[in-house]
Amino acid sequence: MSDTYKAILRKDRVEWCDDAPANLKEAQLVEITIPEEGTSLANQGQKMAMALEQLAAIKAVSQIIDPSAWQREVRKDRPLPDRDL
Known about the structure:
The chain is of the alpha+beta class. Helices cover 31% and strands 9% of the residues. The longest helix is centred in the middle third of the chain and has 17 residues, at 41-57.
């Protein structure tokens, strides 16, 4: 699994927003992803709202009769790995 670090790309230089990764070598291949223009939390919220509207339109969770009971069941505590109760 790869880690994500915040940096600013200035022409041909990368400036780390925080400390540079500790395991960074002198020369190392990295992948840089530049976010799409207009990507913001508000934009993500609008996309989420549209997705939820689509789920509502197709009645994706209509089999849930009592949403409060369903939520309690889903959130019920479960035994944690490697811990004795």
